[in-house]
Fold this protein.
Amino acid sequence: QRSGAAPTRQQSALMTANAAASARARKPASVRRAEILMAAAIEFAETGLAGTRLEVIAARAGISHPRVVQMFGSKQALFLAVVDEIFDQIAAAFSAAAGRLRTGDGVTPLIGLGDAYRRLLQRDRTVALMMLQSYAAAGDEVVRAAVAARHLALQRAVSDITGADELEVRTFFATGLMVTISTALALPGKRTDAAW
């Protein structure tokens, strides 16, 4: 190519591909990690721990399979990272709801947290599906232990935030499971079996 001459179509395509590859390569690890977690959440939510292939997650995230392994080590570790992210989202929704609760407004703390959970699921059905997939994968001992620890911590947080007793917390979580199932199945309308 002469100096100052416009690049050919082939040269332009090559430059565009090189620029795109360079942009992908320059993302900070935290951004790349978040992209992988988002892609993994979608895939695991749909096909579970056993049914999801790392190659599919990598393709969805737009990176190579070896890069996923480099960042997370194994499919199980990636699944558990997604589970942690989902539980963190729920805990954050509960904390935010607790900050908005006011005495005398007629909304009990448990109803406020329940409504926050319902809104989270309505915004992102993947949360409901991942909650169910995390319980379904409990046949794997490592997954079972990790999910159990997060579930029990969330129960303690609900008790601490609301002051609810054991029966109230158990009822709250039973209702939450119904809300999760209703969301996962996209059941129509307001359901009396899933009312806080």
Remarks:
- Residues 58 and 66 are 9 Å apart (CA to CA).
